[in-house]
Amino acid sequence: PPGLTIRNVSKRYSNAVQALTNVSLTIPPGMYGLLGPNGAGKSTLMRTLATLQEPDEGQIVLGDIDVVNQKEAVRQTLGYLPQEFGVYPKASAEELLDYFAVLKGITNRAVRREATEALLKQTNLWDKRKQKLGGYSGGMRQRFGVAVALLGNPRLLIVDEPTAGLDPAERVRFLNLLSEVGENSVVILSTHIVADVAELCTNMAIIDKGQILLEAKPLEAVAAL
Ligand code: ADP
Ligand code: ADP
């Protein structure tokens, strides 16, 4: 699978906040950690990679796709898990996942059923598939978010501060799930929690005040601190 290359990406908001300055990263397939404190620019970079906003300058390339200029192509192969997965309390997991699969362009009913069943099993929600999402715990909602993000086998999975609201047991389950899916695509995990990166990621970068301070393997990075 192809990697992701980010070259000299900068972003300044209209209130003159310089959120990203010349960010360059080479991200291979697998789990990649983006570690930084609040306000460092993580969400800005994640939203930019997810084509939800554009950089002022710079290039982003995923395999043969120009992420900034070929948004539709990226979106076809993108999974995005935001901080809080928005809930539709009256829908069951099964109904909503099927609905998102339709939106993702999986029009064939049998194909959709097979895909959603596999994802509900993978995220350990199969037994709870008929339950309304309003009754789900935070951890279950996040796992459901992973199921949605994985529809269509994305080559790029963006995960933005996912463990913030989870209790320790849910957190471990969630991180294990991510590491399982991380083998066949580029998975970028943005977080301010060092342990999330140290436990899971094969490569990482540290960002602060919109600038990359370090790119390394987690163990080397910890040794350098
Ligand atoms: P992080 O995700 O690491 O907390 P953000 O990317 O959310 O960092 O924010 C980086 C900086 O940009 C912060 O100073 C933040 O206040 C600012 N910022 C983020 N989004 C906007 C926005 N839409 N408009 C103006 N400033 C923003
Ligand atoms: P988070 O910090 O949890 O990632 P958001 O993505 O909503 O939350 O926003 C990122 C940061 O940018 C927050 O700190 C928020 O206060 C700030 N922010 C968002 N929109 C604006 C804005 N229009 N002007 C200034 N700061 C903003």
TrEMBL record:
Span of the signal peptide: none
GO molecular function, one term: ATP binding
Keywords: ATP-binding, Nucleotide-binding, Transport
Domain ABC transporter: 4-225
Domain of life: Bacteria
Family: Belongs to the ABC transporter superfamily.
Protein name: ABC transporter ATP-binding protein
Organism: Fibrisoma montanum
From-to range in the entire protein, with total length: 5 to 229 of 309
